[in-house]
Design goal:
alpha+beta; 2 domains; 8 strands; 3-stranded antiparallel sheet
Length: 285
């Protein structure tokens, strides 16, 4: 998507964007619609932008259907700035990730404080909701595999009743035997293994304390505690452990532009100084 189009979509352009779709609906007409109808109208009017952004294995009609499904399943997205939802879908298209239940990426509403002018023309700070694309751990794995330089990448959580042996040095070895019969105990550590196309192997292991240290540094977690809200660390802790170890191992792997962009998006979301994600709305990280 061009910088000019994004600027117009975000409401920063001085002049309305010219119609660019066969349907002929202008941005001015879209902005005149009720808030909950603006994002679907943007998808219809600017579908060609998705077509340009999408890689060969995805098509714009499918991405539009997926985006609309996410939008309808999460009522809070209808409260977000419509342009921010559309921009997040465009970013997902550029990365080749499908947002939604498959776990590749998620459209997460965020509370953000912005400056606006009131009726008297005075500048005041108000809270608004914006949508941000958050890659899921499945998306990180898919992007790593697509680079062609990684044959396989997997990550697992080890529980206290599992058998786990990891040795480094001249004769490295890793054995994980999950305790399938009965209680597996508490989560103890996480590990990730990458087999590279050139025949090499890379292993990363993180302990419970290391993972919790990263969790506690997250601005989103700190804000959630402040406002007595939940985060995916509360609702989907195992997935967050897996995502954390995947982010760690990705630092040492050959990265495509798409994987590097996805990791940057994820890191930026964790550092957001605003109120943080609007939770309790089926969001997953």
């Amino acid at each position: 998507m061009s910088a000019a189009t994004l600027e117009a979509l975000r409401g920063k352009a001085e002049q309305p964007a010219k119609p660019q779709a066969q349907q002929g609906m202008t941005l001015t007409q879209i902005n005149a619609l009720p808030r909950h109808r603006q994002f679907p109208a943007m998808l219809d009017a600017f579908k060609h932008e998705l077509k340009v952004a999408l890689p060969a294995h995805l098509n714009p009609d499918r991405m539009v259907r997926i985006a609309l499904t996410c939008f309808r399943q999460n009522p809070t997205l209808a409260e977000c700035e419509p342009a921010s939802v559309f921009a997040a879908v465009v970013m997902a298209s550029q990365l080749g990730l499908e947002p939604g239940l498959m776990g590749q990426a998620y459209l997460i509403p965020y509370n953000k404080k912005v400056k606006r002018k009131n009726d008297q023309g005075r500048e005041i700070e108000v809270w608004v909701k914006e949508c941000q694309l958050i890659p899921g751990y499945q998306g990180l794995v898919d992007l790593a595999r697509r680079s062609g330089r990684i044959k396989s990448l997997e990550a697992h959580v080890v529980y206290s009743n599992d058998k786990f042996v990891c040795r480094f040095g001249m004769t490295p070895d890793l054995v994980h035997e999950p305790h399938w019969d009965g209680d597996r105990g508490e989560m103890r550590l996480a590990y990730a293994v990458a087999h590279l196309a050139d025949g090499g192997t890379h292993v990363e292991v993180m302990t419970r304390s290391q993972i919790h240290a990263i969790r506690d540094r997250s601005q989103n977690v700190q804000n959630a505690k402040k406002w007595n809200k939940t985060t995916p660390w509360d609702t989907d802790e195992e997935q967050m452990w897996i995502k954390t170890i995947l982010r760690r191992i990705s630092k040492f792997l050959p990265k495509s532009v798409e994987l590097a962009s996805a990791l940057a998006l994820d890191a930026a979301a964790a550092r957001r100084p605003e109120h943080g994600p609007v939770l309790g709305d089926r969001g997953r990280l």
